[in-house]
Amino acid sequence: MAKFGGEYLFIAPGATLLEGTLEGYSSVACSKWPSRKEAEAFWNSDEYAEVKKLREGAADVQVILVETP
User: Fold this and answer.
1) Which residue of 7, 39, 44, 65 could cross-link 33, Cys pair, CB 3.0 to 4.6 Å?
2) Alpha-carbon separation of residue 17 from 24, 25, 34, 60, 66 (angstroms)
3) What is the tens place of the pLDDT at every residue in 20-34?
4) Residue 18 and residue 6: Cα distance in Å, rounded?
5) How far apart are CA 22 and CA 46, in angstroms?
């Protein structure tokens, strides 16, 4: 992650859903990136592809990329 300029702001197990449809999700992670370009480069990198393989079948994951003003 650091290689692409990213950093975790928090990783929080034990999240509680107050509204919406993400029932069953109990952990949340939030990361910060210099730009969308770096975040997408990380997501599409060979290095991260290996990590994504590790969670296949082990976790149901939702990932969103949000740009803030």
Assistant:
1) 39
2) 9, 8, 29, 15, 20
3) 887 777 788 999 999
4) 28
5) 29
